[in-house]
Amino acid sequence: MNHLLEFYGTECPHCIVMHDLVERLEKEEGIKVDIFEVWHNEENAKKLEELDKDMCGGVPFFYNTQTKKFICGDASYEILKAWAKGEPFTQEE
């Protein structure tokens, strides 16, 4: 499994915005993100629950299994790219 994970809900408007940024990241940076839909897939929802551990409590949720860094909700492209590359970033509340 890739070390970059995205959890989303199909009808979630924030997830749709972030998914477009993930596609841009994959295209521009050649970085692969594994994507899991959780609103209609019970197995993926359980995987999200195991990783989230009350860090976010919802989607979109991004998790880097190497750095253990996560993003809750939507974020800028610059933050997403830093997260994916394992670089320092600050997510504003």
Give a summary of the structure in a few sentences:
40% of the residues lie in helices and 17% in strands. With 93 residues, the protein is of the alpha+beta class. Strand 1 (4-8), helix 1 (13-29) and strand 2 (34-37) form a beta-alpha-beta unit.
What topology does this entry show?
Layout: E1 4-8, H1 13-29, E2 34-37, H2 42-52, E3 61-64, E4 70-72, H3 77-85
Parallel strand pairs: 1-2
Antiparallel strand pairs: 1-3, 3-4
Overview of the structural elements:
The protein has a 4-stranded mixed sheet with strand order 2-1-3-4, with helices on both faces. The chain has a single domain (4-85), classed as 3-Layer(aba) Sandwich (Glutaredoxin), CATH 3.40.30.10. It is 40% helix and 17% strand. Strand 3 and strand 4 form a beta hairpin. The radius of gyration is 12 Å and the shape is globular. The protein contains 3 helices and 4 strands, in the order βαβαββα. The chain has helices spanning 13-29, 42-52, 77-85; strands at residues 4-8, 34-37, 61-64, 70-72. By secondary structure, the chain is of the alpha+beta class. The N and C termini lie far apart (30 Å). The model has no long low-confidence stretch (mean pLDDT 94).
